[in-house]
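User: Here's a chain of 483 residues. Predict its fold as tokens.
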Amino acid sequence: MRRVLPAHVVAAAAVCGLCLSDFARLEPGTAWLPAVAAVFLLLAAPRAAALALGGLVVLAAGWWWGSARLAELDRSPLLAEVDRAARVSAVITAEPRVGMFEQRVFARVSRFGTRRVDEPVQLELPLGRSPPQGARVSLLGVVRLPRGPKNGFDERIWLRRQGIHVVVKVDEWVVTGRRAGVGGAGDRLRGWLRRASAPGLAGERRALVEGVLLGDDSGLTPGLKNAFRRSGLYHLLAVSGQNVVLLAGGVLGLALLLGVARIWAHLGALAAIGAYVLAVGPQPSVIRAAVSGAAVSVAWLAARERDPWHVLLLAAVVLLAWNPYTLFDAGFQLSFAAVVAIFLAVGPLVRVFEGYPMPQSLGGVVAVSAACSVATAPILWLQFGAVPLLGILANALVEPAVGPLLGLAFAAAAVDPLAPPLAAGLAWLNGWLAAYIALCARLVAAVPVAQARGPGAALAAAGSLLVAAYAWRGWRTSSNRPT
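Assistant: Prediction complete.
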């Protein structure tokens, strides 16, 4: 078994402290009392207890920081303007989410009437044209409170956890410019990736390539989205570690072919990862994958061995330090549960599958899919009330196409400025891969038992916990067995 290192203890203590702030907040005047007490104990403690006490110091610091961040996220000057209409200046910070009767988009308000503010909001616009991400807009709107619980979803709580406390119903709007700085750079990178990764493609194929590459499902039809959910393939539409690995690996491979020194190759990989995060946005799975990918290059540059558990904990610290409410986000929970399952279960499962007549590559795919399916089933039931039952089959079918699809998308974006016809040819090939993935999602989703809901989902989640407990017991027994 892997030895617990001081770095693990420190990072885990920081995560625990940040999570504590979600349930009990430290008051500003008493915030440092636990840390000060732990420091005095640390100075007086024997060496054997120093690590544990040091962890307490970090836990207290994380608890204080999380409490301060939550107080900032809960601050809302616009709550005093509820039911008032005014001319609003804002910047659009995300792609629109189109519903049946209206579309919603996140924005950051800089002025409400004559009052200067700096607060994130959700804009509600009628169906039709919407301002693009990164646009500065002047709009006429009315401030409202978010909707309460309805059909199992509480919009008010969901928005609050993202620092949003009011919505603005928009009557009319006009674009007045574009944002600059880091956000503007991310907008331009996203626009370039969207255009250059699929030149010549249209319709469903283009939407699916953009969905896998950018984590944006807005171009997919409701039917195809539902097929991805029922089949257990919806995770493909959230940017994952595979995207970052392919990007960093492509940069390193290209640098090797060009004869670039390894130090510059790894610096280039770090720059590419940073640019990709800017383009796709700070989704939990993106940040986790970016921290992991960056750690590989940083570890090589520092001539140190990369520890996957430490990197995973650091990614959690980064996300929770920015917004402790992320703990309740389904994407955060699913992403980290899947990675922990991969760390713990894939190796033993691969060894089990070695005794069966199947290709080694297929055994690896089945092992990863099985581990992730078991780990994420309880979360899916608690968050969405539904559990896909054929996810292992669906992932085994699409796995040969997902990596090449991402690789061709990145390659098309890279060569489009230099050789547009070649980029169009790569995109044409990619369209067939996208069509194959969509076909697999629809075929698996069409099976009547593809997804369990209600009591069936609860039974599936409970079964996954029993399987996990049995597998953990077996793994512990085998790992402790003398050789």
